[in-house]
Design a protein that fits this description.
Elements (H helix, E strand, L loop, with lengths): L7 H10 L3 H51 L8 E2 L2 E2 L7 E2 L5 E13 L7 H11 L5 H9 L5 E7 L1 H10 L4 E10 L7 H4 L1 E7 L4 E7 H5 L1 H5 L8 E2 L4 H17 L4 E8 L5 E7 L32 E2 L5 H10 L8 E3 L4 E3 L2 E3 L10 E3 H7 L2 H11 L1 H10 L26 H8 L5 E2 L1 H12 L3 E2 L14 E2 L3 H16 L14 E10 L5 E14 L6 E8 L17 H15 L20
Parallel strand pairs: 3-9
Antiparallel strand pairs: 1-2, 3-4, 4-5, 4-6, 7-8, 10-11, 10-22, 12-17, 13-16, 14-15, 18-19, 20-21, 21-22
Length: 596
């Protein structure tokens, strides 16, 4: 409660003493005013202190932030798409030696704010002059129909950007973004696949894979946790270039419709080169074919090495021989019935060009001469169930696990039923269709001593384990048989001095869409491994509809088409791989004694 200015006790006492009571009131008023002034002064001082603290804190924060920005590296601003941030960074892809196969390049997009344009009609005309694929009328209509934003070009070259900049209209703006670049052009195109833009903003765009490794490993390439670490493939750029060059020349010389080649390390499963022709440039990926009558293989986007599912012909014969030896049914020198033609029910099994290698052939000769009848009798010893189990163990019943987005869709075509006649035809590569990649993996199992290893396009640094499908002894005998095919049999043109090539030819008639087979269209394959004395590498070469017209008689078989192409590839790549040629002993000098 406030103290009264005229306290009654003091007033009465002052009157009693003869003093003036008003003096007491004035004194009390003075004391009260002094107390009020002291209180106001303290409040003002506190407010000034708080204001000073606020100013010091605000300017200190601003100064610290300015210092932090000055000390950091400059970076482009990033625009967020609705609901999620656009991830523009994508890891590089390299070959096994660190050479760039795919990388990123900074470019710019061109867009417009029509509402701030000074001369929409003039800008439209000038842009059409810079970009011939743009229509001036369409641009003008888009600039004047009330829109506030218009995309013009998603990617600009530096020259185009300079020309647009010289137009000088404030409504034309540039947005920085990353572009995927393949510096080697068409080289390894079917391995890399290609990319396109996903979510797009003004200042950034999401680069996503659309095929090949780019699609299959898209999450890995875009993973920020990887810190931009390059993805190392098993491909060797030098080997890839050589394989594509020789394969392309062979395809042209032999008038083939298409071609494929796979070079694999038999011990690790690493694919050192993978080629499919015709090819394309992933920097300018073509559109898929829309013609309903066109075959899938007509498109350059079609990967024949993985997506091409073909009957691979006599290349399958070595599997029948290997399984029969593994089961102890035959040995390399066991004689089997090879008397042709062979009748099985209403079916007649013939040899190429009506030949007859019978009445008996050793198992080794069956492979060297590529006898259908001899292989059929070996397959009947094995039986349908055991044959299926062996081919399944070699991977012929499932898509290959290679890191390409196209691989899971390339399922082998397997007969629904498996009577003995299917056992016979499958033993020499008819009735079951698979890709060259399946064949490469199966031949690698023979080459590496009987272990089935999954093929891969990723560089492997350590040892690789797999499932054993045959003993080392069986695999070694199979390699010897394949070596005889080159030295004495149907692949004599595949001999490369010093490198001991072993392999098997396969010529398969192409099936018609309406049923039956063409008489003049074939798929030719040569499945090889080298060096035969210590197999390290497997090479598969497949040609689609080849025709050798260099001789007086046209030739279509693998021995005249795929084999010489594969031999030239091995001749070119073996030195690049560090393989030393094995010097063959010189022929003894013959002396003739002459008596004088």
């Amino acid at each position: 409660m406030r103290t009264p200015l005229r306290p009654l006790a003091r007033i009465l006492q002052a009157r009693h003493d003869g003093e003036n009571p008003d003096v007491i009131e004035r004194e009390n008023l003075r004391v009260r005013h002094e107390a009020m002034r002291e209180k106001s002064r303290g409040r003002a001082q506190f407010r000034l202190l708080m204001l000073c603290v606020a100013f010091v804190g605000a300017f200190g924060t601003i100064g610290a932030r300015m210092g932090l920005l000055a000390a950091t590296e400059p970076s482009e601003p990033r625009t967020s798409a609705p609901g999620a941030e656009i991830i523009a960074q994508r890891a590089d892809i390299t070959d096994r030696n660190g050479r760039i196969l795919a990388t990123n390049m900074t470019t710019h997009a061109l867009y417009a704010h029509p509402k701030v344009m000074v001369d929409p009609k003039g800008v439209a005309a000038k842009l059409a002059g810079i970009f011939p694929d743009l229509d001036a009328g369409t641009l003008e209509r888009r600039f004047t129909d009330g829109r506030s934003f218009v995309w013009i070009r998603k990617v600009l070259s530096p020259e185009q950007m300079q020309l647009v900049h010289e137009i000088g209209d404030p409504g034309l703006l540039f947005g920085p973004r990353e572009l995927r670049l393949y510096p080697n052009g068409t080289l390894a195109a079917h391995v890399l696949g290609g990319t396109s833009f996903g979510a797009e903003g003004v200042h950034s765009a999401e680069v996503i894979g659309v095929a090949g490794v780019e699609k299959a490993l898209d999450a890995r390439l875009r993973d920020p946790a990887q810190g931009g670490t390059a993805l190392a493939l098993s491909i060797d750029l030098s080997l890839q270039a050589t394989v594509e060059e020789v394969l392309g020349a062979g395809m042209s010389m032999l008038n083939a419709k298409g071609a494929a080649a796979i070079l694999m390390d038999a011990r690790t499963g690493e694919i050192l080169a993978l080629a499919s022709l015709p090819t394309f440039d992933p920097n300018d990926r073509p559109s898929p074919l829309v013609d309903k009558d066109a075959e899938a293989g007509d498109s350059p986007l079609f990967n024949r090495a993985v997506q091409g599912v073909y009957e691979l012909g006599s290349t399958f014969k070595i599997f029948a021989a290997a399984q029969a030896m593994e089961l102890g049914l035959v040995g390399p020198d066991t004689m089997v019935d090879a008397n042709a033609p062979m009748t099985w029910g209403k079916h007649k099994i013939k040899e190429f060009e009506g030949k007859n290698y019978g009445p008996l052939l050793s198992v080794s000769d069956v492979i060297a001469k590529s006898s259908n009848v001899g292989t059929a009798h070996i397959a009947l010893m094995i039986g349908p169930l055991r044959q299926q189990a062996f081919l399944k163990a070699l991977g012929f019943f499932e898509p290959t696990p290679v890191e390409l987005i196209e691989a899971p869709g390339a399922r082998p075509l397997i007969p629904k039923k498996w009577p003995e006649i299917v056992t016979i035809t499958t033993s020499y590569g008819h009735g079951l269709s698979a890709s060259p990649m399946h064949l490469a993996a199966a031949y690698a199992a023979i080459a590496n001593g009987g272990v089935m290893i999954k093929p891969t396009l990723l560089k492997r640094d350590g040892p690789t384990s797999g499932v054993r499908v045959m003993t080392e002894e069986t695999a070694a005998e199979a390699v010897k048989m394949l070596r005889r095919v080159v030295t004495e049999g149907t692949a004599s043109l595949g001999e490369v001095p010093g490198y001991e090539v072993a392999g098997k030819t396969g010529t398969a008639d192409k099936p018609k869409a309406t049923g039956g087979y063409y008489d003049d269209k074939v798929i030719n394959t040569f499945a090889s491994m080298f060096p035969a004395s210590n197999p390290q590498y497997v090479l598969i070469v497949t040609l689609d509809e080849p025709l050798d017209t260099t001789m007086s008689e046209d030739r279509r078989t693998a021995g005249w088409t795929s084999v010489p192409v594969a031999a030239e590839i091995i001749r070119r790549i073996a030195p690049l791989m560090g393989l030393r040629p094995k010097l063959e002993p010189a022929a003894p000098v013959e002396l003739t004694a002459v008596k004088n």
